[in-house]
């Protein structure tokens, strides 16, 4: 989605320059995209939210019995987040656990964007998610909250407009207390 915005911005800038040359007027300055391809914090936060929602969608499609379903999840992660997710999914697969239900992102709050790194808070509703072992015994802590606050860090990938989730930590945030 960010790539489409970048192409639209580049195309719009070219049209504006052509019109300015024809009319001898100068257009208002347009934002200059950062090295990661985002012209504003809002654009960066929107790309981060899209990345996180894609990650949750991929996670919701995981079948623990089929490790091939893990790959779309891994594709959206890097650094510690990738290592942690690989360890977690591999252990659940090896233990023959089964997951059912879906997580849902209820809110997303951009916090900061500097040097290509985006920090955000997401509220994740896990109330419909169950995890059972091979004997059908729940592996979900009975004290688990229905909604988690997650502090997320996003890093650019080799594609300037693409992001990966490089760090993810459960935190307390009153905006996620539902």
Helix and strand topology:
Layout: H1 2-23, H2 41-60, H3 71-74, H4 79-94, E1 98-100, E2 104-114, E3 117-125, E4 130-132, E5 147-156, E6 163-171
Antiparallel strand pairs: 1-4, 2-3, 3-5, 5-6
Main features:
178 residues, alpha+beta, 4-stranded antiparallel β-sheet, 35% helix, 25% strand, disordered N terminus
From the alpha-carbon coordinates, what is the Rg to the nearest angstrom?
Answer: 20 Å
Q: Give the count of helical stretches.
A: 4
Shape summary: globular
Structural class: alpha+beta
Give the proportion of residues in helices: 25-40%
Strand content: 25-35%
Spatial strand order of the main sheet:
2-3-5-6
Element order: H for helix, E for strand: HHHHEEEEEE
Number of strands: 6
Uncertain runs are 1-34
- The overall average pLDDT, rounded, is 82
First and last CA, distance: 30 Å
Largest sheet properties: 4 strands, antiparallel
Characterization of the model:
The chain has 178 residues and is an alpha+beta fold. The chain has 4 helices and 6 strands, in the order ααααββββββ. The strands form 2 sheets. Strands 2-3-5-6 form a 4-stranded antiparallel β-sheet. β5 and β6 form a beta hairpin. It is globular, with a radius of gyration of 20 Å. The two termini are 30 Å apart. The relative contact order is 0.16.
């Amino acid at each position: 989605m960010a790539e489409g915005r970048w192409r639209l911005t580049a195309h719009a800038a070219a049209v504006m320059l052509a019109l300015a040359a024809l009319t001898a007027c100068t257009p208002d300055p347009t934002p200059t995209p950062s090295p990661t391809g985002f012209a504003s914090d809002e654009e960066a936060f929107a790309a981060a939210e899209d990345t996180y929602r894609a990650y949750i969608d991929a996670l919701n499609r995981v079948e623990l019995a089929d490790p091939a379903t893990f790959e779309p999840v891994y594709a959206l992660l890097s650094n510690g987040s990738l290592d942690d997710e690989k360890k977690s999914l591999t252990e659940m697969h090896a233990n023959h656990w089964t997951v059912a239900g879906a997580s849902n992102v209820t809110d997303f709050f951009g916090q900061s964007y500097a040097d290509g790194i985006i920090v955000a808070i997401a509220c994740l509703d896990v109330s419909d998610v169950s995890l059972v072992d091979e004997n059908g015994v729940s592996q979900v802590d009975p004290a688990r909250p229905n909604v988690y606050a997650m502090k997320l860090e996003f890093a650019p990938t080799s594609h300037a407009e693409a992001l990966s989730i490089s760090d993810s930590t459960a935190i307390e945030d009153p905006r996620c207390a539902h």
